[in-house]
Every structure is written in C-alpha cells, then in structure tokens.
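Work Package 4 report. The design task specified in the project plan requires that, given a folded chain encoded as structure tokens, an amino acid be chosen for each position. We show below one input record used in the internal validation round.
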C-alpha cells in the first residue's frame, strides 16, 4: 500500500511539473509574439545606409604598389 501511494504521489508531482513547464513555455511564446507585433508597429522605417567615400582614393596601380611593398617588407622582416 505504501509503495503504491508513493508511486501515485510521484506521478502527480511529475504531472504538475510537466503542466507548469507547459504553461510557462506557452506564456513565454505568447509574450514574445506580442512583443514582436508591438515592436513592428512602433518601429520606424530603417534609415538608408550611406557608404562612406574614402578621403583620398588610391588608383588601382597605387594600391597594388602599396600592398606589394607591405608584403615585401613583411617577408623580409620574417626571415630575420
């Protein structure tokens, strides 16, 4: 009799725990959905992205020369 009562108490406790988790997760999903809808209504239109222009644009040949010099100096320094 005692073992049966302990087993039933364990099953009841398990059911209560599963029910609590189910209710909590349901409320969590509902609140996240409501917040998402609210933020979509309140959010303004996104600002257009402006790409900054370089202050002093290098031509392709100058850029290749600068990169080549940097690679050459790096390799020379690495040998030492």
């Amino acid at each position: 009799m005692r073992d049966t009562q302990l087993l039933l108490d364990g099953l009841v406790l398990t059911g209560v725990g599963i029910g609590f988790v189910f209710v909590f997760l349901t409320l969590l999903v509902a609140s996240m959905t409501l917040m998402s809808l609210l933020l979509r209504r309140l959010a303004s239109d996104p600002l257009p992205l402006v790409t900054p222009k370089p202050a002093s644009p290098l031509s392709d040949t100058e850029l290749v020369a600068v990169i080549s010099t940097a690679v050459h100096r790096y390799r020379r320094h690495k040998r030492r």
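The radius of gyration is 33 Å. Validation will be extended to a larger panel in the next phase.
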